[in-house]
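Dear Dr. H.,

I hope your travels went smoothly. While you were away I took the liberty of generating a structure for the chain from your last submission, since the lab meeting agenda had it listed for discussion. I wanted you to have the full record in hand beforehand rather than looking at slides cold. The sequence, exactly as received, is reproduced here:
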Amino acid sequence: MASRGNLPARAWLIVVLLFFAGLLDYLDRLMPITMRLSIKEAIPMTDAQFGLLATAFFLVYAVLVPVVGFAADSFGSSRLIVVSLFAWSAITWLTAYVTTFGELLLARALLGAAEASYLPAAGALIGKYHRNATISLATGIHLSGVMAGAVLSGTGGWLAERHGWRFPFELFGPIGVGYAIVLMVLLRDPKEEGNPQVVAAQGAVSAPGLGETILHLFRRRTFMLLLVLYTLMGVTSWVFLGWMPSFIGEHFRLAEGKSGLIAAGFMNCGALVGYLAGGAWADRWSRTRISARAWVAIIGLALTLPCVLLIANTSALALAAGGLLFFGLSRALPDANMIPILFHFVDRRHRGTALGFFYACGTTAGGILIYIGGALRDAHIDIIRMFYAGMAATVLAAALLWAIRPRDAADQTLTSRVDE
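The corresponding predicted structure, in token form, is as follows:
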């Protein structure tokens, strides 16, 4: 296979293509959060029921994502990405035509099933094209696309105010269907790694079954601790992503569209910078220190704490916006490096499945907490308490990451073996 430097051909093209797929993934996923008032006006529901929409998405996603992660390991990532993008875009399009809460709940559950394939397959595909020297930056670029989608999700409330809540679904669903056709033509696995079963037939590597893969992963103490860590990370992510637009709107008495744009815009614009900076910083530092990616993540987690305190306690919108911006930047540092840290410890043949379990734990925690937040709102309990719970989870995550970080002397042999 042709290559440029130490990378396979098309390595950076793949990242660019996945940037836009990740954008559509989170745009379609998060858009309803910024349309809460418009949706509730058209389809009456309590805040707990509105939170249940996210919970249904997350729980279906969590159940399916390890299985589809294994499919990415077994049959190639690129085909799974195309199918996932087409399916979730079609479901987004059809969501515009629901008329009852039950239909909307079903649509969100189906969206969770369709999107479950994407992130494990995309992470595994990036891992095939990018090795230790560039993997954090490549992951950061991809995740910056995810955050760009989160930023654009703020337009959901703005569009709903002007054209009705159905219009954003009618707009972005067809765009995703069209882009799936583009990826069908351009997206490819590396030739020798596209189908592990074919490679196995050539005697290069065995193709493990699902049970063997799960046993391989769960017999390793470090992988189990990484799952706990990613669960804590899911708590810290979704507590803020799920309820920040509502908090900003109520705390500063802003309209739905404006609060959605401010919350999603500032927090995720900061994340765009953080993903790129955190990825490049970790790649460069890791040339001299094998634990560099873990330290970048720990630093980022620590920096989020004063940002949350500022957002929760200030009465000045400008200060809150600054806090959102720097929170997004800081929180992106660990996110840009969690997949490379996982790949440090996991055999290449099992990475899609491992990512599936990662996302299952993170989204389960997030979905439950978003529903709890809705129940707390119905009980007239201040949502700031959920933010403080997210801060406590952040401290625990940083401590756990410090405990399981790669050790320079002991892990150099492991890194060489896993990357062979």
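Two observations you may find useful: The beta strands are 3-4, 7-8. Residues 1-5, 194-205, 410-420 have pLDDT under 50 and may be disordered.

With kind regards,
E. W.
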